[in-house]
Design goal:
By secondary structure, this protein is α+β, with helices and mostly antiparallel strands. It has two domains: 2-95, no CATH class; 99-352, no CATH class. 31% of the residues lie in helices and 23% in strands. The protein contains twelve helices and twelve strands. It has helices at 2-7, 14-19, 24-32, 40-48, 52-60, 65-68, 74-98, 156-165, 202-206, 284-291, 326-336, 341-347, and strands spanning 124-125, 130-132, 135-138, 141-145, 171-173, 175-182, 212-217, 226-236, 239-248, 258-266, 272-281, 305-313. β3 and β4 (141-145) form a beta hairpin. The radius of gyration is 22 Å and the shape is globular.
């Protein structure tokens, strides 16, 4: 019954919250308390459409009830409730765009991107754009990389790791279908996080003769919405393949996919030849099938809808120059799986 009440809520201000660089967690309150904001009137209309039954449900049954009940004012309670609901709407909107069969989905229909070539994974070459703090510019418009979870800042530290490699000619990324704005007004939020790095134990890995598998079951509360993480190192001929996938809880799959990372190393030298990070969206049937198996089993790689976030490819002729070091590989993995403490601990045993 609560879903029927929620369906009656208006989202007239959705376009604003879906396209701004600020997450709804910060932006909804800002708009509500600023009568001069262009989206203020639309937000008030949306807040007024929230039925009393929805407020009562959020105060007693929802995951954020401890936040809602701290607010004495009904409108302030509705601000928190709307923040949660509009975040879900944005997640669904982004997922819909990413899974679209359109040959040129958003944001590639933008006038500044009309001449930019797309690969079969809907990624663009980074040397076709200009790397800037917080995003990528083309002409007078700023675009951002696709977030690797439904948290809009989940690719923030990954982008720093990518930009530190300084080889845009080897990199392709997927742009966020929702967020872009003129360079002149682009003002993203800055985040801070402590990161760690240790020497990569390649000597042990490169001597593997059979597949090595690992599985982590996430612990609450640090796991957020993570169920488990599967990880393998697989020797194939003269290469070593690394694959890691973080599976969300089933209750989260309507708004987010899994995070999936793949890398290929040249076995003799240990140099990185390829790596990519992707999101895999599952329906309930696909999710159940995937959770019955480990990532080592070949059939699971064909399940779900895959959306690549970034990809590096190093030509054979450049492997000797090692454009991507082991340290940079670890930075890519741990920032791609930001907030996954099992992956961080795996590459940094001192933190386990």
């Amino acid at each position: 019954m609560i879903n029927e009440y929620i369906k009656s809520i208006q989202f007239s201000s959705l376009q604003h919250f879906a396209t701004t660089t600020m997450a709804p967690l910060f932006e909804v309150g800002e708009v509500y308390h600023n009568p001069e904001h262009p989206a203020h009137a639309l937000l008030l209309f949306d807040l007024a459409s929230i039925p009393e039954q929805v407020v009562e449900w959020f105060m007693t049954e929802s995951d954020i009830r401890h936040l809602v009940t701290r607010r004495d004012d009904v409108m302030e309670q509705k601000v928190l409730i709307f923040t949660s609901l509009v975040s879900d709407e944005i997640d669904n909107l982004r997922k819909l765009e990413l899974c679209s069969s359109n040959s040129r989905p958003k944001p590639y229909d933008h006038t500044e991107l009309q001449e930019v070539a797309l690969d079969r994974n809907m990624m663009v070459k980074c040397d076709d754009m200009q790397m800037r703090l917080g995003g990528y510019t083309k002409g007078e418009e700023m675009f951002v990389m696709l977030p690797c979870t439904n948290a809009t800042n989940s690719s923030y530290w990954l982008q720093d790791a990518i930009n530190s490699i300084r080889r845009p000619d080897l990199l392709k990324i997927r742009l966020d279908p929702l967020i872009h704005e003129p360079v002149a007004t682009f003002n993203p939020m800055m985040y801070k996080m402590q990161l760690y790095g240790t020497a990569f134990e390649w000597e042990r890995i490169k001597n593997l003769t059979v597949l090595e598998q690992t599985q982590f079951v996430a612990e609450f509360p640090s796991s957020r919405d993570i169920s488990r993480t599967d990880l393998i190192w697989k020797p194939i001929d003269d290469e070593i393949h690394f694959t890691c996938e973080e599976m969300p809880h089933k209750t989260a799959i309507s708004g987010r996919g899994s995070r999936y990372f793949h890398a290929i190393f040249q076995k003799e030298s240990g140099r990185l030849k390829h790596c990519d990070g992707a999101i895999r969206f599952y329906n309930e049937e696909e999710y159940d099938f995937r959770m019955e198996k480990h990532i080592k089993e070949n059939e699971v790689t064909r399940v779900g809808t895959r959306v690549k976030v970034f990809q590096f490819d190093v030509p054979e002729t450049e492997l000797s120059t090692e454009p991507i070091t082991h340290k940079q590989f670890m930075d890519l993995v741990t920032t791609f799986f930001v907030w996954n403490h099992d992956v961080l601990g795996y590459f940094n045993p001192s933190l386990s």
